[in-house]
Design a protein that fits this description.
By secondary structure, the chain is an alpha+beta fold. It contains 15 helices and ten strands. Strands 1, 2, 3, 4, 5, 6, 7, 8, 9 and 10 form a ten-stranded mixed β-sheet that branches. Helix 1 crosses helix 3. The longest helix has 23 residues. The chain is globular, with a radius of gyration of 24 Å. The relative contact order is 0.14. The structure holds zinc ion. Zinc ion binds next to strand 3.
Length: about 425
């Protein structure tokens, strides 16, 4: 019997996502004997001396034994390292890290899959689902770093009455899961100064309370329907504070008018009193198209800070959609694929770690310098697409015996990878 070292198997599993193989079975086809360099490259990455390759079932067996906790812990150690290196600091907002709270569908099955599935009725069909709520730290150059994860299951839906709307169910589940999420996050990162960024679902008493309980600021999307009385106060006070206005035109020619109100009072449905600030941004494009955005926040808003708060805090929300779950679903990482029916959580964390590594490669200075030498601005432009980059990595892993210098920790220690967009 061959025994595989756990470090080797973790790299084996990470490579599934780093090379965007798309399914576990592909490991058996892409990392087999016709990839002559695979074993030596992975052995040196893992610091092991395996003399044969595992099959995909070995990975499954290993993850079933270890569970997801050690893999999640590996993610924590990597993120803590990045924070200690100050690699993520340029993205701070008033000294705080912006943490996006975002929920997503994860796995969907056509038949009951475990005792914890959420169910959704579509006509005659019942879907059995698992959802996930994530805290993603916004780093520089549009990097999005998963720092806490909470899986949502049917226990989160228990207090929602049968027949409630899907919207109500989603709100209840995500607010419940948010408390667990923050519990985990604060356990792992007790000292970080944070500002939560979330959609209008969180702009309510419970959302404010969770931020307070976990010593964080917040900037949430503000919509009239979520807290109608607060919205009316905001609109009324905006008219009374015409001086609280900043105008600017972006390099793309979009005219932005920022207005704000400090010290709005709000009593939530549980009788708790809150004082908060709100910002409105009206944008007009060169073609005359108008859009309006609003946020509530605990951060101080003034002529000096309004643009930064709205831009670094509020507007960055689209990034989770573009750089976060969307990338993980659509770029070959195949988030919604059931890599396993039993230890899917472990695969989820492997995917998050691989995505972090890929972003450091895509957006770090090493490949950017290489790209600039070739007259391109970014690594993605150099290779043509993210898919091409994954293909090149797979080719390289399979056929190129990576030079020994590449594994020298002393030499690696002197390389500083900077993440920035310059
Ligand atoms: Zn299930």
């Amino acid at each position: 019997m061959v025994v595989y070292h756990k470090r080797f198997l973790v790299w084996w599993g990470l490579s599934l996502f780093l090379c965007k193989l798309g399914s576990r079975r592909q490991l058996d086809y892409q990392f087999n004997t016709d990839g002559p360099a695979v074993l030596a490259n992975l052995n040196r990455l893992a610091g092991t001396a395996q003399d044969s390759r595992p099959v995909n079932q070995t990975l499954e067996y290993f993850l079933e034994q270890t569970g997801s906790v050690p893999i999640a812990d590996l993610r924590r150690r990597m993120v803590q390292r990045l924070i200690r290196m100050k690699a993520l600091d340029p993205a701070r907002l008033q000294g705080r890290f912006v943490v996006l709270i975002d929920g997503s569908g994860y796995l969907v099955f056509g038949s009951p899959h475990c005792d914890h599935c959420l169910t959704q009725q579509h006509g005659e069909t019942t879907l059995y689902m698992h959802q996930v709520l994530e805290a993603k730290l916004l780093g520089p150059a549009d990097t999005v770093v998963s720092i806490a994860t909470e899986f949502i299951d049917n226990s989160d839906a228990q207090s929602t009455p049968a027949g409630a709307s899907q919207e109500q169910l989603k709100q209840d589940c995500e607010l419940k899961a948010l408390r667990r999420l923050m519990d985990g996050l604060r356990g792992e990162f007790p000292q970080l100064r944070l500002v939560f960024n979330g959609d209008s679902l969180y702009a309510c008493g419970e959302g404010f309370q969770i931020a307070k309980d976990y010593r964080a600021d917040y900037i949430y999307v503000f919509k009239p329907g979520r807290t109608p009385a607060l919205w009316q106060d905001f609109q009324g006070l905006l008219r009374l504070c015409p001086d609280q206005q900043v105008e600017q035109t972006t390099p793309q020619g979009v005219r932005q008018v920022y207005r704000w109100v400090n010290g709005l009072d709000y009593t939530d449905s549980d009788g708790r009193n809150w004082t908060l600030n709100a910002i409105e941004c009206t944008e007009t494009t060169k073609e005359g198209e108008k859009s309006v955005w609003s946020w509530v926040t605990s951060l101080e808003v003034s002529h000096e800070t309004v643009v930064e708060v709205a831009t670094k805090g509020g507007r960055q929300r689209w990034r989770t959609e573009n750089e976060g779950f969307n990338t993980q679903k659509n770029s070959g990482l195949n988030l919604e694929h059931a890599y396993s029916h039993t230890c899917w959580a472990a695969y989820y964390f492997l995917l998050q770690i691989a995505h972090l590594l890929l972003q450091l490669v895509e957006k770090g200075s090493l490949l950017r310098h290489l790209a600039q030498e070739q007259g391109k601005r970014t690594a993605v432009q150099l290779y043509g697409s993210l898919k091409n980059m994954a293909q090149r990595l797979l080719d390289s892993l399979r056929y190129w015996h990576w030079p020994d210098e590449a594994f020298d920790p002393t030499a690696a220690g002197s390389i500083q990878i900077r993440i920035d967009s310059s």
